[in-house]
Amino acid sequence: MIGRTACWLAPVCVGLPLLTAPVARAETAADLLDRLVQAYPQALAGHDGDAIIWRDGTRMPAGKLDPQRSFDDRLRNATILDQLSQPYPRGQPSTPAVNADPGRFRNEALFKKMYGDCSTGGVTRNLVTITWLPKSWGKSVSVTRINGVAERLKRVSAEIDELDPKIRRAAFPIAGVLSCRPVADTGRMSMHGYAAAIDLNLDYSDYWLWSAKKSSPIPYKNRFPQQIVDIFERHGFIWGGRWYHYDTMHFEYRPELLPPQAR
Ligand SMILES: [Zn+2]
User: Fold this and answer.
1) Do 186 and 75 meet the contact criterion of CB atoms below 8 Å apart?
2) What is the distance in A from the centroid of ligand 1 to the CA of 36?
3) CA of 251 relative to ligand 1 center, distance in Å
4) How far is the CA of 162 from the centre of ligand 1 (A)?
5) For residue 41, is pLDDT > 90?
6) Do the Cβ atoms of 1 and 22 come closer than 8 Å?
7) Which helix (H) or strand (E) holds 5?
8) CA 135/CA 131 separation, integer angstroms
9) Number of neighbours of residue 188 by Cβ within 10 angstroms
10) Ligand 1 mean position, distance from CA 125 (Å)
11) Quick one: pLDDT at residue 19?
């Protein structure tokens, strides 16, 4: 943006772009928590800077943004602020920087309260059945109804069904939704534990652990069509293909990492 004052005073806009161009401002903790609250309006009522406040009145500590904590510690013991701390890129995928894993920090207390605990039946009671790709595959899939995830996946499915058959082939058969077990390298529940993630066609998939032992940094691979990624992201789902520890068939509902129009 060119300086508004200069433009108002001069017959020809002679703003000083070098002095007045916007500088990207790092988001504060309050900004990050605003983003979280706006992303989950059915569950969250607000925050006070130190804690998020649920609609049922529960206060949950947001934790601290501590750059001294190791990546592994944040992966295994993510605070709510850790969960929001890595920016999620959009557009054509590029090789992620080492340990750039936006979305892999997940605060387990937050998601268990939101979706239920799969080990005690809390997730199952919120499952609904949708038909995945009715025009091209047409099989039933059980997903959570919390946060409108099932309805959003129906819209994703309808849009993928309209893609070129060669492209939509990457979206079926699906490799799974609900899986009540922790992620191998974190010991924490993935979004599959809440039935809020979907793995698409394994034949198109690349996964960091398959090549991690061979070289470092981990070589990035992806064969997933960008059109499918774009559709999921428009509906609030992030893609595992944007992670350094990539998992390219994986999509999970994480609207707090996407722009407001995707929520
Ligand atoms: Zn997955």
Assistant:
1) yes
2) 22
3) 7
4) 23
5) yes
6) yes
7) helix 4-9
8) 10
9) 18
10) 21
11) 44
Looking at residue 186, what is its pLDDT? 79
The C-alpha atoms of residue 78 and residue 34 are separated, in whole angstroms, by: 18
What confidence score (pLDDT) does residue 7 get? 30
Is the pLDDT assigned to residue 9 strictly greater than 50?
Answer: no
Mean pLDDT for 69-97 is 94
How far is ligand 1, taken at its centre, from the CA of residue 201, in Å?
A: 11
Cα 23 to ligand 1 centroid, rounded to whole Å: 36
Of 182 and 197, the one with more pLDDT: 197
The more confidently predicted of residues 210 and 257 is: 257
The residue type found at 130 is I
Structure tokens at 31: 């900004």
Q: Where are the domains of the chain?
A: 27-262
Please give the distance, rounded to the nearest whole angstrom, from the Cα atom of residue 250 to the centre of ligand 1: 4
Q: How far is the CA of 57 from the centre of ligand 1 (A)?
A: 32
